[in-house]
Design the sequence.
């Protein structure tokens, strides 16, 4: 695993050549109580243990990062939160109530939206239509009125279209509104995916590597958007990201996973000096001459 | 030239009937990525339901309404009993399941509604409209015109439904990416039930039109096979493609039937009849070589 990390260590572990200027946010927002509490989560696929006895919590309005080397179980963790995977052991408390296994679509209705590591946009549809699908949980017109394109369905469509335009303005993607997403460059697709998630007006946003494969400029933009979402809408953000500079800059608290176990949890400062974390990222002390972790 | 046009027009009209069957395939393929082998069986089943209910003494409109309810139920039952258990399985598994469904429906239909060949009388005569005959000299049957009108209305409604409404958008979303659709709170099961219901409705319209033209008989399931070249031409995911593909197949097979035999006879000797039967498939095969994704299909470009 350590060799694996070192392979792309240059861009991901070491500070980037051009520092990503994530504006040190004006931390005016106030971090609330625990919204989501994960207790002793274990998840296995056949004999493969993806997650072993992991506990951590997520507080309202905070930016919570999940980091770890490849295969550490970060995406599995997001998939547990979002209901794609059902852990064999452990409990999930959402807003103080224990959550039993539930389908992703029910969870989406509870106000948890997400983006995917490998962009999962609807390729044949336009940017606008993609973002409109994000409004699905908020639209209540029935099948019949939809089929007949009747009063309520029509008015509803207009109202939601308005909301979607706001999201489009917010993420500065007005110019590509009508383009089929399949034709957009990677960075913009990531942004459209964020827009679709935001259109649902979620209380909690799960971002699975929102900046993977982006250039410095795109990363800066994305960084700014994440902070703005968090500040302006008070959205709780759970973030998986490889770029340590970004993670350390924008997150309030960081969970570190390695081989499906939790090896660190705390503020960026605490995590960075945690010897176990340094070992996971840079191999043993003997292998790594210089413990340069992030900023 | 007069004759040529007459053949072409009759081809266009029968082409629309192929489109109708192809439409059922496209709907399900769009929304679940499954090639529904049972579409032909559904057409047969729907037509049987109509004649079966009429045998029991229902008037035509009530029988159609009843058959509509039956088809919706078949669609929903398929979702609940078959598809729900196969979520996240590879497409080939789902395809195999639809083959099973086809045999099941082909068996159940005659059992419930009787297997004797019967005709559906929609009350529209299949004879040329004199007014058109007189003015431009091309014979267009009243029935063909009515059928074409039905198809056009149906297609326009479906296209609007898919493009403009929440449910339509959710359908397209599910077709594109299950996981992403689920993460947006789109309930997969609900959407599939809707799609199979709509496909059942399209099958009913097809069953009514084909059944009243050729009689309700087992051969109706074979009409589904004619939809294959239509789909190859139009692309599996495109509603306009199904229409255009149907028109092209209809016209080309009728023209080939008339104009090809003399040519082939000169070349190879012998007797060439029934070209209509195989021409669409050969045509589709050649077309595959040129444009595998169809006229309107989505070309897949993978990021490497």
Sequence:
């Amino acid at each position: 695993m350590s060799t694996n990390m070192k392979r792309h260590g240059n861009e991901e572990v070491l500070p980037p050549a051009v520092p990503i200027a994530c504006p040190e946010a004006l931390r005016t927002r106030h971090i609330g109580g625990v919204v989501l509490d994960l207790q002793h989560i274990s998840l296995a696929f056949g004999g493969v243990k993806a997650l072993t006895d992991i506990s951590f919590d997520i507080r309202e309005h905070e930016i919570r990062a999940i980091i770890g080397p490849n295969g550490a179980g970060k995406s599995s963790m997001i998939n547990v939160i979002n209901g794609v995977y059902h852990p064999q052991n452990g409990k999930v408390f959402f807003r103080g109530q224990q959550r039993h296994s539930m389908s992703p679509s029910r969870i989406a209705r509870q106000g948890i939206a997400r983006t995917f590591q490998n962009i999962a946009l609807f390729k044949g549809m336009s940017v606008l239509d993609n973002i409109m699908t994000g409004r699905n949980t908020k639209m209540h017109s029935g099948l019949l009125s939809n089929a007949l394109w009747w009063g309520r369905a029509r008015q509803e469509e207009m109202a939601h279209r308005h909301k979607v335009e706001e999201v489009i303005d917010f993420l500065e993607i007005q110019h590509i509104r009508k383009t089929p997403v399949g034709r957009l460059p990677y960075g913009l697709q990531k942004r459209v995916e964020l827009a679709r998630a935001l259109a649902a007006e979620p209380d909690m946003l799960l971002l699975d590597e929102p900046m993977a494969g982006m250039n410095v400029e795109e990363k800066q933009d994305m960084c700014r958007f994440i902070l703005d979402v968090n500040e302006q809408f008070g959205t709780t953000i759970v973030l998986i990201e490889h770029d340590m500079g970004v993670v350390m800059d924008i997150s309030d608290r960081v969970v570190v996973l390695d081989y499906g176990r939790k090896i660190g949890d705390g503020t960026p400062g605490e995590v960075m000096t945690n010897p176990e974390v340094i070992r996971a990222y840079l191999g043993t002390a003997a292998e790594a001459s210089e413990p340069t972790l992030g900023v | 030239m007069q004759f040529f046009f007459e053949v072409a027009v009759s081809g266009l009209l029968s082409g629309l009937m192929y489109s109708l069957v192809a439409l059922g395939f496209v709907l399900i393929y769009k929304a679940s990525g499954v090639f529904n082998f049972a579409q032909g069986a559904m057409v047969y089943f729907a037509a049987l339901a109509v004649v079966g209910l009429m045998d029991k003494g229902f008037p035509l409109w009530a029988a159609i309404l009843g058959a509509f309810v039956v088809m919706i139920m078949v669609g929903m039952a398929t979702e609940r009993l078959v598809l729900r258990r196969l979520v996240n399985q590879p497409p080939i598994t789902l395809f195999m399941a639809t083959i099973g469904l086809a045999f099941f429906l082909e068996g159940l239909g005659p059992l419930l509604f009787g297997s004797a060949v019967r005709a559906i009388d929609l009350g529209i005569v299949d004879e040329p409209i004199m007014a058109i005959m007189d003015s431009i000299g091309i014979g267009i049957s009243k029935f063909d015109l009515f059928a074409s009108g039905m198809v056009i209305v149906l297609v326009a409604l479906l296209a609007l439904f898919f493009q403009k409404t929440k449910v339509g958008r959710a359908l397209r979303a599910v077709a594109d990416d299950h996981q992403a659709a689920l993460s947006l709170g789109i309930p997969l099961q609900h959407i599939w039930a809707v799609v199979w219901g709509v496909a059942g409705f399209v099958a009913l319209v097809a069953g009514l039109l084909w059944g009243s033209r050729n009689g309700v008989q087992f051969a109706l399931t074979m009409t589904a096979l004619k939809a294959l070249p239509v789909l190859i031409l139009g692309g599996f995911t495109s509603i306009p493609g199904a229409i255009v593909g149907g028109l092209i197949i209809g016209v080309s097979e009728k023209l080939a039937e008339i104009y090809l035999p003399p040519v082939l006879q000169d070349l190879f000797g012998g007797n060439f009849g029934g070209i209509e039967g195989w021409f669409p498939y050969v045509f589709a095969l050649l077309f595959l070589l040129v444009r595998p994704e169809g006229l309107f299909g989505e070309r897949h470009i993978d990021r490497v």
In short: The interface with chain A takes residues 160-161, 164-170, 172-173, 176-177, 179-188, 194, 237, 298, 301, 303 of chain B (CB under 8 Å). Residues 2-220 of chain B form one domain. Chain B has one domain: 2-220.
